[in-house]
Amino acid sequence: MQKISAPSVERNRKPIRDVLEKYLQRSGKLLEISSGTGEHAIYFGNEFKQIQWVTSELRENHPIIKSYLKEAKLSNIHGPEKLKIGEDDFPKSKFDYVFTANSIHIMSWKENKSLFKLLGKRLREGALVFIYGPFNYKGEFTSDSNEKFNEWLKNKDPKSAIRNMEDVVLGMNKNGLKLLNDHEMPANNRLLVFERMKFLSD
Length: 202
Known about the structure:
The chain has helices at about 5-20, 40-45, 60-70, 110-120, 145-155, 165-175; strands at about 30-35, 50-55, 75-80, 95-100, 130-135, 135, 165, 175-185, 190-195. The protein is an alpha/beta fold. It has a single domain (about 10-15, about 25-135, about 160-195), classed as Rossmann fold. β8 and β9 form a beta hairpin. It starts with 6 loop residues before the first helix and ends in a 6-residue tail after the last strand.
């Protein structure tokens, strides 16, 4: 099978790694949602040996991830697990971290809300969530390139769109997750970091 490579991974992995390093100080288990080719998992698995990194994707994308993981031979990378937001539950495990890159704008807003609910339901107090990608602020694009990218997204799928950062924060807040930091990243991207707070009903 011919391997597929995601060019964006090579461009963004180092800046993402530099931010994750501030938070991944202790050992734990991390669920990556929408692992794509698995290249992020391999790079970060090498960088953060104390993290058990669990990949997940749609079933049809598993072969390419398995190919990359087999070649990498890293004992701290696992999966891929089948995960379609809106249909599947998280893998049966306790996760200390969740990471997803360039997925929020691909998923429909309904799927986004399903993701927020899953995060609130499955993560315990103190768990961290990292969401990387482009965001709008107060309904405005942060660059001309993001506006053009949004047009491209909607031409592919009308349900896809760059999301408003405020809407994402509100959706996460409703499910018990508080914004800790909003990191500026290269190429008009952001990395939002959330913490699972304790519900009074927990």
